[in-house]
Amino acid sequence: MARIYSTVSNKGGAGKTTLVTLIAGEYALRGERVLLIDADPRLNLSGWWKLCRSKDNVPDNISVTIAASRRTIEAEIARLGQEFDLIIIDAPGVDSTIQETIIGSSELVLSPVQPGIKEIEAAGQTVAAVNQFNDRAGANIRHLNIRTRITLPARNLEAYRYVRPFVAGLREAGYQTALLDTELFERNVYREIQNGLGTLQMQPLTDPVKKARYEVQSLVDEIESKRPGEPIAAKDVAA
Ligand SMILES: Nc1ncnc2c1ncn2[C@@H]1O[C@H](COP(=O)(O)OP(=O)(O)OP(=O)(O)O)[C@@H](O)[C@H]1O
Ligand SMILES: [Mg+2]
What we know:
about 240 residues; alpha/beta; Rossmann fold; 7 strands; binds magnesium ion
């Protein structure tokens, strides 16, 4: 049965769909069969996929399906779970009733966090939702925060500097969550691939693409080191 991850943030435009396509390409390159479930009725992820198909840029090892209700998400997981190694569910950017289904289906919930107060608050809401689900269902779903759209000037912003203490505060309050060290920078190539260019990993290896590829490789390595089966590093416990 495939392991299931999801990208969740109530903040529209937080970077969920971009994160899905970036890591999906990396997992696919590592030989995993990846199914992406577009659970956002605005169909951004499947729109990208459609463009990729029309431009003959369909990546190997990746498939995309649409399922935007509790019933269809559960049905797609049951129907396709054996055929794939990894399923990633892209959640809508609003607090919707299917959020609980998406969280409850996942072993790992990823929240992209831009250096902005609304994005940080939305990540906090997702932390609460995951922890509530765990408490209620006796589950052990992990939550990870991933900083995205980072620029060098943005690192001076108060909101950027607030992310780490915010996550540390949640942990001190007893919530299970973690902040990844790897950040996604603001990069043109991350935007450009949305125009049907396939995955990041299919782009010609220019210097900017090499940097982006390195960033996403580190991200996937770090995500895999924090899966539920993996022991929590001492530094995370202390953070
Ligand atoms: N690291 C990044 N570098 C450059 N552009 C980015 C990055 N992350 C996201 N974007 C851009 O920001 C916009 C919003 O990103 P995205 O669609 O991934 O967010 P989302 O959370 O899925 O939004 P929604 O809530 O509408 O589904 C897009 O135009 C995307 O190309
Ligand atoms: Mg989206």
